[in-house]
Amino acid sequence: MTSRDMGAAIPRGVWVLGFVSLFMDISSEMIHALLPLYLTVGLGASALTVGVIEGVAEATALIVKVFSGTLSDRWRSRKGLTAFGYGLAALTKPLFALATGPVLVFVARFLDRIGKGIRGAPRDALIADITPAAIRGAAFGLRQSLDTVGAFAGPLLAMALMLAWNDDFRAVFWVAVVPAVLSFALVVLGVREPEPDARKAPAASGRMRFMGLAALGAPFWWIVAAAVALSLARFSEAFLLLRANDVGLGVAYAPAVLVAMNVVYSVTAYPVGRLADRMPARTLLMIGIAWLVAADVALALARGLPLLAAGVIAWGLHMGFTQGLLAAMVARHAPADRRGTAFGVFNLAMGIAMLLASAIAGALWQYVGASATFWAGAALAIVATVVTLAATAHE
């Protein structure tokens, strides 16, 4: 790797895909930040209905990710699947505003998650395809950073509009259609895919299959092992909201916890991505895990806002140090002709681990206590350190 390589500019397509993620996240988070209340207060649905809708939607996204990644390898078309995924998600946004009962919300959420599942792996593989290897850390960090800007801008905009429009859910949902459509338009008009011969030809096969997973190579599977270990140690951010309420933060202000976490995440992801192009990945991952341990300890001990804030900030630093970096490591080690499959498998493994971790965290919270949930997270993070050290021995 030469200094000239490392100084190369991040390709225009990566910037465009970053803003695509930003606008879609603004749209999605404007809706998702209000959806539980919209269902229960606005449409009279039960908490069980909310849980079923969310569970089915997320499980669907996990399954679709693997298929879309493999299809992008087989068809040698990342942009087409990426655009289709964003387009499908954009089409679902008006359904939330039009819904008069939980059924249409379920349909909209289901299709929205299918769109998310379709676009994720091909988009990340496309970023790897158009970015020089020497600056992939910076590229993935940039996309993650812009994506996370949307994750905190969406809820802030939703809260502002709800205050301005006297809690008019439907009006806010209609506004959310605009950034979603803009996101789709950016993919179609602003992204150029490399010519097919810029990648290796896919392995000959007459059918889409997963038997080629062995061809992804041992380094890739070690990265998946590290990612799974980290995901088991880091449960859903919903528990940050519960902890905030547990230590006395009012319900109306609870979303500020996610806003703060995502601000830190966004500010950190790109600089860490640039560092990843210049120093060993395992060093940055170890720092990221240390931040997770610190977050869990602070949240376990929290009895008021100071330690809660410290834990939330440390959590955001952990995300900034690990998420974009892991994606760049997948891009580095996956064969060029199987990058879509690799990102699909990677996202599926992380998603399943996250679901399992959140179930364990919920059980601990209910039967042992809130502090026990975070102490367990700290213990699992220490275990994840050992796995990550082994997994990155080749880095």
Explain what you see.
The protein is mostly helical. The protein has two domains: 1-197, Growth Hormone, Chain: A; 213-395, MFS general substrate transporter like domains (Growth Hormone, Chain: A), CATH 1.20.1250.20. The chain has helices at 3-6, 12-32, 35-42, 47-75, 78-98, 102-130, 136-164, 169-190, 218-233, 238-246, 255-276, 281-301, 305-333, 339-367, 370-391. It is globular.
Short description:
This protein is an all-alpha fold.
Based on secondary structure, the structural category is mainly alpha
CATH topology of the largest domain: Growth Hormone, Chain: A
Q: Which range best describes the helical content: under 10%, 10-25%, 25-40%, 40-55%, 55-70% or over 70%? A: over 70%
Distance between the termini: 14 Å
Shape: globular
CATH architecture of the largest domain: Up-down Bundle
The low-pLDDT segments are 1-6, 201-211
**Rg (C-alpha, Å):** 20 Å
Task: Note the total helix count.
Answer: 15
Query: How many domains, in number, for the residues?
Result: 2
Quick one: CATH class of the largest domain? Mainly Alpha
Biggest sheet record: none
Order of helices and strands: HHHHHHHHHHHHHHH
**Tally of strands:** 0
> Strand fraction band?
under 5%
Mean pLDDT: 84
The CATH superfamily of the largest domain turns out to be: MFS general substrate transporter like domains
